[in-house]
Amino acid sequence: MIKLYWSPRSRSFTAIWLLEESGLPYQRVLTDINTGAQKAPDYLKINPMGKVPALVDGDAKLAETAAICAYVADRYPETRLAPATDDPKRARYLQWLFFGPSCIEPALIQLFTKLEVPSRMAAWGSATQVFDVLDAELQKGPWLLGDHFSAADITIGAGLNQAVRVFKMVPPRPSFDAYIDRCVARPAFQRTEKIAAG
């Protein structure tokens, strides 16, 4: 059975949401970052970075939220959370799946720290560019792949909800509000909110 190592009120939210959407049986293993459990030697064998979430599935062990999403969606195609490798939509799916950690998270750090980084030197461009590009894409809706909800929506939806509604670091826009509303309306998202609250 899949084991997800998690902690309340953390980035574990995204991985829990993914597993709740998948319908796969899984076990949550509390790894409370407030007590330092993520630095225990046994846990560091799973994730040497000492962060949550991490996932164990048989002999497979991995960390990093987007990697967990990619792994589960590909390993269990019956979940229909990823286009097949021969589907042309696969390219856009991968782009948006990794847009969260490679663009949204650095943009949020830039906003939070008020860090001035020339856009030509920042891998994410600029915070303004990141959210303008996302805004334009989400106006096409309802999901990043049109009518098909995917693991990419989980990584983007979780991150955008945190950025706009939880931490209020990014001003709301009509496309953001409509997209977040669609995410929040999903039963798996609602179950995840209850679980992740601790």
From TrEMBL:
Domain of life per record: Bacteria
Signal peptide annotation: none
PROSITE patterns: GST_CTER, GST_NTER
GST C-terminal domain segment(s): 86-198
SUPFAM superfamilies: GST C-terminal domain-like, Thioredoxin-like
InterPro entries for the chain: Glutathione-S-Trfase_C-like, Glutathione-S-Trfase_C_sf, Glutathione_S-Trfase, Glutathione_S-Trfase_N, Thioredoxin-like_sf
Name of one Pfam family that matches: GST_N
Domain GST N-terminal residues, every copy: 1-80
PANTHER family: GLUTATHIONE S-TRANSFERASE GSTA, GLUTATHIONE S-TRANSFERASE-RELATED
Name used for this protein in its record: Glutathione S-transferase family protein
Source organism: Bradyrhizobium jicamae
